[in-house]
Amino acid sequence: MSAPLSLHKDRLLPADPATRHIARDLYESVRDLPIISPHGHTDPSWFADDTPFADPAALFIIPDHYIFRMLYSQGVPLEDLGVPRIDGGPVETDPRRIWHLFAQNQHLLRGTPSRMWLDHAFHEILGVRERLCADNADRIYDHIAERLKSPEYRPRALYERFNIEVLATTEGALDDLRHHRKIAASGWEGRVITAFRPDGVTDPDAPGFRDDITELGRLTGQDTTSWRGYLAALADRRRYFIEYGGCTSTDHGHPTAHTQDLSETDAEALFARVLNGSTPQEAECFRGQMLTEMARMSLKDGLVMQIHPGARRGQNPYIQRTFGEAKGDDFPAPTDFVHDLKPLLNRFGNDRDLTIILFTLDETTYAREIAPLAGHYPALRIGPAWWFHDSPEGIMRFREQTTETGGFYNTVGFNDDTRAFFSVPARHDLCRRVDSAYLARLVAEHRLDLDEAFRVAADLSYHLAKAAYRL
Ligand SMILES: [Zn+2]
C-alpha cells in the first residue's frame, strides 16, 4: 500500500494559531490572482507549436537540474537518468526506467522545495493521489502519461489553466524569435514575451564570442569590428526584441556585479583587444563596461535591466566535458555590489526613468548591500530570492533581511525563473504563502495594520512585478 498524497491547505503558514489565522486570510486574498511571470526559461516553442509534452521523465526529470543533481550527489550516474552526453555516448532512453530510478530515490528530495513543487504538480495539475515510491512508479507513470496525451494538458491549455497573465522566456541576442512571432501570428491570446539576454555577445569569455559578434554584424548590417558599429548592432537587436518578442527587459548573467564607465577612446581600445582574445582582467572590464552601455541603451528604449551576478558556472570539469552547461555544477559565489556597481551608479543611479533589478546568490548581501542600495538609488530594485534561495526558508530570509531597509516597494514581486513549466503555479503559490506568513507576523506583532497587509500581499503577488517590468 502506498501512502496518500495530500497537500495541507495551511502548508507553509505559521504554526501558531494566532498568526496562522491572519496568514490564512492574507493568502486567501491573493491565492487566485493571475500569475505574472516576468523572468524564466520555459521554451517558447511549447506555446508556438502547442504539441503535447512527451512523457513523465522528459517532463520532470531529464531537463531538471534541481532533481538530477541531488540524485547525482548520492551516486546515481546522470547517464542513468537520461541526461544526454555531449559525445552522443549511451544514456538511458527508456523513460519508464528513468522514472523508476527516480521513484526509488525520491526520498532524497524530502524537505527540499523541489519536493514541494513536484507534489503540487502531481496533486493539483495531474490529479495524482498517492505518494510516488518504487512500488507505485508504474501506476503513476501510466496515470501521468495518459493525462499528457489529452488536449487539456497541452501547453496553451495549461497556460490558461494556470491563470498566467504574462510569461517571459529568455533568448540570446542572435535569436530570430521565430517562436514568439509564430505565437503572435497565431491569434492565441496568451502573452508569451521574450527577454533580451546578450551575454553571448557582451562576455568575451562566452563560448563562440568572436563568431557571434560577426553574426551580430551580419544580422544587423552593422560593422561589428568597430566599437560604434557593435553598439549600434546591439541597439538594433534590442529594437528587434521589442518589436517581435514583446520584450520589456534585458538579463545579464555575469560572474560578478563589476561595472565600468570608460571613456569612449578607452572603451574602443578595449573592444579591439577583446576581439583578438583577452586576459581575464580585460574580459571582466569589458563585461563591466557593457553593463553601463546597456543601462545607457535602456534609458533610450525603456527596457528594464536585470543583473544576475555571482554564479560560478561549470565548476566540475568532468560534468562540463561530459554533459555541458547547466547540469547542476553551478555554485553561488560572494558578490560585492556596493563597490562593483559604483561606476554604473555614478552615471545612472539617480535616473528615475531607469530600472535595474539586482539578484543575488550571496545572501549576505541582502541586508548589507542590496537593500541599502535599493533603499537609496532611484534606479535600483531588489530582485526576488533566486535559484538556491527560491525556497520557503530562502524567501523568508529575503523578506526578513530586505524589508527593514528596502521596504516592500523596492522589491519587484516574484520570479519563478524556471525551465519546468509544471512548476510555475507551484512556485508562485509557495511564494504567496511565505509572503503571507511574513506579513501575518508583522500584523500579529502590531508592526503593520491588517488592511495595509492585505494591500501589500496583493502588491507582492501581482502589482509590483507588473509595474517593475513595465508589463
Ligand atoms: Zn534566469
Main features:
51% helix; binds zinc ion; 4-stranded parallel sheet; alpha/beta; globular; 471 residues
Walk me through this protein's architecture.
The protein is an alpha/beta fold. Helices cover 51% and strands 7% of the residues. The protein has 21 helices and eleven strands. It has helices spanning 17-30, 44-49, 56-60, 65-73, 95-104, 113-125, 137-149, 155-161, 178-186, 199-202, 209-220, 227-245, 264-275, 280-301, 317-323, 337-340, 342-348, 365-374, 392-406, 424-444, 450-468; strands spanning 35-37, 164-168, 171-172, 192-193, 196-197, 249-252, 304-307, 311-312, 331-332, 356-358, 380-382. A four-stranded parallel beta sheet has the order 6-7-10-11, covered by helices on one side. It has a three-stranded parallel beta sheet with strand order 1-2-4. Strands 3-5 form a two-stranded parallel ribbon. Helix 18 (365-374) links the parallel strand 10 (356-358) and strand 11. Helix 13 (264-275) packs across helix 14. The relative contact order is 0.14. It binds zinc ion (ZN). Zinc ion is lined by residues 39, 41, 417.
Oligomer: single chain
- Report the strand count: 11
Indicate the overall shape: globular
The DSSP helix count reads: 21
* Integer-rounded radius of gyration: 23 Å
In the predicted model, the low-confidence regions spanning at least 5 consecutive residues are none
Biggest sheet: strand arrangement: 6-7-10-11
Gap between N and C termini: 49 Å
Strand content: 5-15%
- Helical content stands at 40-55%
Mean pLDDT: 97
The helix-and-strand class reads: alpha/beta
The main β sheet shows up as:
4 strands, parallel
- Hetero compounds: zinc ion
